[in-house]
Design goal:
Strand content: 25-35%
Structural class: alpha/beta
Order of helices and strands: EEEEHEEEHEH
Strand order of the largest sheet: 1-2-3-5-7-8
Helix content: 25-40%
Largest sheet: 6 strands, mixed
Radius of gyration: 13 Å
Number of strands: 8
Shape: globular
Number of helices: 3
């Protein structure tokens, strides 16, 4: 696996930046809401500039996603796709429900390597 170009620790997530990919690991017991997404949008816009990128969510921790957040993703013109990683079937089932709300390609994976291969192919 390639080393990240940059890392950033936020109050609600850890971010690893790669070439056209950001890997996010949201912390335990967070309710991911519109304010969090807005902060992520600004950070990704600063890092990727006008280049397209894929957001990969490593769901190893337990947290909640408010599905309404997906509506605001259309504001992120450079977001090319979303990948969800989890070895937990229940977490993948929840992510599969969230997929219905995504305005961009959205795929589920059980490991990081598969998610990165998919992201690089978009």
């Amino acid at each position: 696996m390639v080393k990240p170009q940059n890392t950033l620790e936020l109050s609600f997530t850890s971010l690893e930046f790669y070439d056209s990919i950001v890997l996010s690991t949201v912390k335990d017991d967070i309710v991911l809401n519109l304010e969090h997404i807005e902060e992520l949008r600004k950070i990704c816009a600063d890092f990727f500039k006008n280049e397209g990128f894929v957001y990969i969510s490593n769901r190893k921790n337990s947290y909640t996603v408010n599905p309404i957040i997906y509506i605001n993703l259309i504001k992120t013109n450079t977001l090319k796709g979303i990948a969800i990683i989890s070895e937990n079937i229940e977490k993948l089932q929840i992510a599969n429900f969230e997929k219905k709300f995504s305005p961009v390609p959205y795929e589920l994976f059980q490991n990081e390597k598969e998610a990165f291969v998919w992201a690089q192919g978009i």
